[in-house]
Amino acid sequence: MIRNESARIDPKRRATIDYKKKQFATPSYQQQDYPHRLNLYHVPPTAEIRLEDFEQWAIDRLRILAELETCSFRNKTPAETTEHIKPFLDKWLRLDANSSSAQGCTDTRLQDQRRKDHYSHFILRLAFSSTEDLRRRFTRVEGALFRLRFQTENARERQDFVASLSLDWEAVTDDEKRTLAQDLLNATPGLKKSDLEDGGWFKVDFEAVPELVEARRIFVKGGKAYVPSKEQMSIVLAGFHDRLEQGLELTARALPRLDEDDRLSPILNHLSNNFAIPDSTLADSDTALSGASINASSIDSLSAHFPLCMRNLHMTLRKNNHLKHFGRLQYTLFLKGLGLTMEDCLIFWRQSFKLITDETFNKEYRYNTRHSYGDVGGDAVRRGRGYSPFSCQKILTEHPPGSGESHGCPYRHFSVDNLTSLLQVTGVNDRDVLRGVKEDVDKKRFHIACNRVFEWTHKPEIRQVKDEGTWKTADLDTIVHPNTYFKRSYLLKRGLAGDSGQNQADNMEM
Questions:
Q1: 393 neighbors 478 (Cβ within 8 angstroms)
Q2: Could you tell me which residues come within 8 angstroms of residue 22 by beta carbon, excluding any fewer than 6 positions away?
């Protein structure tokens, strides 16, 4: 495997440095160089960065990891995953090869890209090392990201990167290769005699390449696995996983020291909470739909494009002529995100609350609607804009519904039987889809269940825009906001191809 050259500290040996000298010593920061696009993240960064960069870089990386995990949940092939994730990598975590610049790895642009990649990895280590579940998930998706980059790396630069590592392997001599030639040919699928003679071979402990041993793709003798050079990714990836797991355990032990830092703790807590599903907010441009008539009288017809959470609120409102406070708040902000004006929203609620008088409505409900739009109350900053529509992450994690309440996420807060009944009422009757939703809910992948339903209900339209090439891959990324669900559904069903404006990643604010 990969040797760890760091010196061990004897825990029984007392520190000989004067604590006063250590406390008041001038800190020394190191600006690191990045000769390779790939990185095993063995050395933590030590240079200073701005607090804004600390948060933003971590958010950008989290976007990538969330999309990779979604591809895994959807059982996408490696080729499909690479195609899906490429536009997001280019946008949020771009890493260009040395050959892309005449100056090579010394190019300032390449160094800045790799510095962001380096720092964002270690920032997320801090956020996701607190629990075993977070550490396991972080290791899995970071390994997937490293594998994708390793596979798509330029062959020459990949070999330079591997040569720079301290890999614990032993080259197979020509004499040993000739002696074991027949065994190597028989045990290695797809190996040609010319590859055996010309290609490089090395041997490692068989525990270092469990993937190759499990798949019976290599020859094992005397506890050593004979690996062709083309399979070196398995060894490098195993070393990456081992180092990352050890690093996360060490980080978890140091986490209590960060509790005293009021600047970083809220950021790290927010990042770890958003690992379940990325948070998202909508920009003003995302509320605009060309050709759409959005007013109090059109909500019933538009509800066919609503996600299940808002569809449930609308159906409950029409059935009972009333919603409780958090249901009204969640639905009001959603309607606001559609582009419904405050005046039309007041008309909509007044017409929906048929069982009360105008006096009661004005006294008990009018102010809350105006407050949500920022017309009254709030501080000077919020006034005039009001509150933002709730994202999926906010709906999932805040204010779970109680008895008689209808807000929240049905995929999380409903029983399986009630969820199935609601889906069937809204027209989802496919057994495979319902079975997939149940599996997603059992594994707490609520946003994946919602996206599964969306893809089934819009299957012909999605296929059409893909075949025509009118929508980019990023326009069909994972939905993490109810208003994004509505807008994408509306555009697909109305056949408005072209720039969908659905790339909610543009406006994600973790």
A1: no
A2: none
